[in-house]
Structures
1.
Amino acid sequence: MGVEPVAESGSIAARIEALRAVLPAGTQLLAVSKGQPSALIREAVAAGQRSFGESRLQEALQKQQELADLQPLDWHFIGRLQANKARGVVRAFGTIHSVDSLDLARRLSRIAAEEGCRPRVLFQVKLRPDPSKTGFEPEALRQAWPELLQLAALDLVGLMVIAPLGLSTEALGELFGDCGALARELGLAELSMGMSGDWREAAAAGSTLVRIGSGLFGSRG
Ligand SMILES: *Cc1c(COP(=O)(O)O)cnc(C)c1O
């Protein structure tokens, strides 16, 4: 499945504008800046983009330092989160998309309470078999839900899903639709669905946050 460029050419600003023009009103753009230099983030900020997704703590901390002269940006952690990075992630990110176990949620809540903050949390879900991805299966999330609701230092806002490679447009629509149904069942408003290759299907299915990297910044170095 190839990455569909958002626009054939042009600047990051032009691509952001092109995306904004076609995304539904309820769908926000999360610019995935992992693997991209701070200079490109600056370009996106100049075009009005405030929300950025990173998947490695060390890399994100370095960029946050390099961009410290800007108005504070809205940083989202979207990568696999190891227990020993939890404190760093809680300190550096306002939103965490990749909470994939009850143990991790407990740890994040304890740390957030210690740090005096309350991160926005999305649970990564696995709705189709995919050996390369982690995430709660729906039944496991339902079972953990009563305890998750007790984690007062976490602001539970939504679900995040990564589609397995190679799904048809129709299968993507079903997958994203299933994710939306599970979020509604749990009373969660945010749906982090869609990347460069499948954001159209995700937006059509009600995504509130599309996570777009290469389609915006070009391929990662
Ligand atoms: C890298 C990444 C993205 C962005 O992927 P692109 O295909 O470059 O748009 C989105 N979500 C997650 C979880 C990622 O790791």
2.
Amino acid sequence: MGAHIEAEETGNSGAGRAARRDEAVRAAVEQGLLGPDSPIIGLLDVTGIRESAAELRAAFDAVVAPGTPVLHAFAVKATPLVPVLRLLREEGVGAEVASPGELALARAAGLGPEMTVLDSPAKTPGELREALALGIAVNADNPQELDRIDALMIPHSPKDVGGAPIAASRSPLGIRVNPQIGGGSIEATSTATATSKFGVALRDEGAREWVVRAYLDRPWLTRLHAHTGSQGVPLSLMARGVAETYGLAEEINRRAGRRQVDTLDIGGGLPVNFASDATTPTYAQYARTLAEEVPGLFDGRYGLVTEFGRSLLAKHGTVVARVEYAKSAGGRPVALTHAGVQVATRTVYAPGVWPLRIAAYDSKGRPKEGPAVVQDVAGPACFSGDLLAEGCALPLLEQGDFAAALDTGAYYFAHHYAYNSLVRPAIYGFGPGGERRVAFAVVREAQTVEEVVAESGGAQVDALVGGRAPWGLP
Ligand SMILES: *Cc1c(COP(=O)(O)O)cnc(C)c1O
């Protein structure tokens, strides 16, 4: 218990994180990871990631009844990097996957089926078959998907999904519901609106009764899933989504006359503070809110699964990019850097919704001093909207300096967007390094231009010309 309180009070202090980041940028320049020939990298703060994982565990340990099974499954889509998944595995954190690629990443990181949950909204019969054969937990998104699972579970089912049924899958199975409690401030990431594409819309006519019957007819449905949070959704609204889901589990179990639903998957979606280094809200606040708003959730009758993504990784990632040129246009200074739409796609296309903080470093990687000047920080792509930040007040960025886009550990540099065939930058993890102060480990090598050519049909160079008719595959 003492350790938990300590983690909550001292863990992930914004100041500690900022100091580690400053040291890492300087060390990256000193050690040659950043420079004229490698003008952009991503950095991951390993200490910070471990601290956030510990805070997550401690927050729920502090509220659940002793002995309650809890699986924290990291939403792989937030940072789909194998070494990150392996690091989290070491911290006792599993994986929530939503595509064949994400499942493959989780398996490559050594995550076993008991630590993996499959949730995607458009699973093919082949994916369902693989998940059930592996024993991975699956949440069915809709009635048609449940039909497919039926056909895999029940021998001699008339429904043909291809291949023989899986005789006795160990997969814990559930249904994803949408409590339709309303969205947050960001339309594109709100999952619990009335017309959201995810899960069974609980308040639609007949839907709740359909869900209850689906459980009563299938003794093997033992989980219930909802993911209602996301950036822009307040804690109270997230808690309401969980309360609705809990209420439905109670109803199913009452009507079944037994504890059929034994595990609630409450999703992820804790918002992240992109405005400063402080971590708000915290996992501890959210867990306490749930304990207050959903009495019974933590009393030991239900095992729990969580699926946090952004809140585990966002604040531990930094994109650092060299200022190639500094110029002025219409009286406004513009720093032309190597970080733009390829690493900060959401921010560039929706800057009002996803603003990023920028930190200025000098050519030696030291925090830049000087009066704040209103300037644009631009990326390398060939369209005028390619701005990391517009009109931001920073010490004036000059040629050879570095601009850092902060809080980019989730949904940014691990989500490369191949505009202008810009290469994926290298990503390094950093931690305390003894004599060198900061030590780096390669998490992902930079993509080479040869790889760009190969991934752009390089081997098919003559596919559309010459003697071969382009429309006549052999
Ligand atoms: C995206 C997603 C998550 C993670 O959301 P964050 O906002 O990154 O915490 C969890 N569960 C499901 C089903 C998701 O689609």
3.
Amino acid sequence: MNIFEEDKYYIANTYSRQPVEFVYGEGSYLYDVNGKKYIDFGSGIAVNGLGIAQSDWAKAVIKQIKTLPHVSNLCYTQPQVNLAKLLCSKTKLSKVFFSNSGAEANECAIKAARKYSFDKYGEGRYEIITLKNSFHGRTMATLTATGQDVFHNYFMPFLDGFKYAEANNYESVKKAISNKTCAVMLELIQGEGGVIPLDVDFVKKVASLCKKKDILLILDEVQTGNGRTGTLYAYMQYGIKPDIVTTAKGLGNGLPIGATMFNEKTSNVLTPGTHGSTFGGNPVSAAGACVVLKKLNSKLLIEVKAKSDKIISELSGLKGVKSISGLGLMLGIECDDLKEKVNACLEKGLVVLTAKNKIRLLPALNISNDTLDAGLNILKEVLK
Ligand SMILES: *Cc1c(COP(=O)(O)O)cnc(C)c1O
């Protein structure tokens, strides 16, 4: 059997994979088993934000692997504390809980929101409002939070206490809120939902309503976080102060890590025994993530915006491009015949993703201008 057949035979068949086997990567380049070189506009779905195997990240990771790859969370480790300190100082949030993935970071936020409300108001105030077309993960709670029926098939019954409102429709959110509501959870750009940004005005209104009613505002920055949109976290462009922020993907730059960050109000909700994770905040992932955060300085973030402008100006108005949405280096190009276009890109040596009816671009934040141009030339050819 070849690898495609073996994969299908031995691995649960949950992914429609692209027909390519990558064996090596460096920066914004990937190489397949035949030695063919590809430009990477996907970053492993917004994970490899600094490029593949970034040298300082790899150095820190290797050093930590050789020193202490794992110890239980019942002891202290420096990389985890260093990472928490970096996150808190850069966000002005107060405390962090570490897990291994986006879904887990959101699970933690959901649990914390319910406990915050329970501690303060007692039983019954447990509802969480999320948006239609959102994506929050694949575990039972985060799947329930995900406002898309396509993901809900087969898995009933779901958790109690989730309600869905319309994105960019303040009245819809207001209507969904009741005296049972403990939190509103949002992606500022719906990623899997088709790279759809929320309006600043909508988000601000929701934030102030939440504040007034002591409903927690949870932001799922699993995909939008860690420099992806041109600020360290996307909320920093929205002029709001969330109560809980979750992140994962780009924080790890290739290793699994999730973080749930709490503001002062929510920082002491989780207490001994109320939550935990065996691997969460693993020293190796944490040592790597510290390098990621240190590299996401204002110079790099300004470059993200410049590269974003470049992509938008090169692609907008092209025949076949119906619209371009997104922020920073999280962009969606609406066009027809997606599957064929993705395959054509791959054929020509460019890796791109899709989201709903769009080609989704998530290149490394530090992609060089030459590589970006070369990738855009392939994309333009294919779009025509
Ligand atoms: C990817 C993603 C998740 C899930 O993250 P996993 O690491 O796959 O569990 C959750 N929320 C958003 C917004 C995401 O993009």
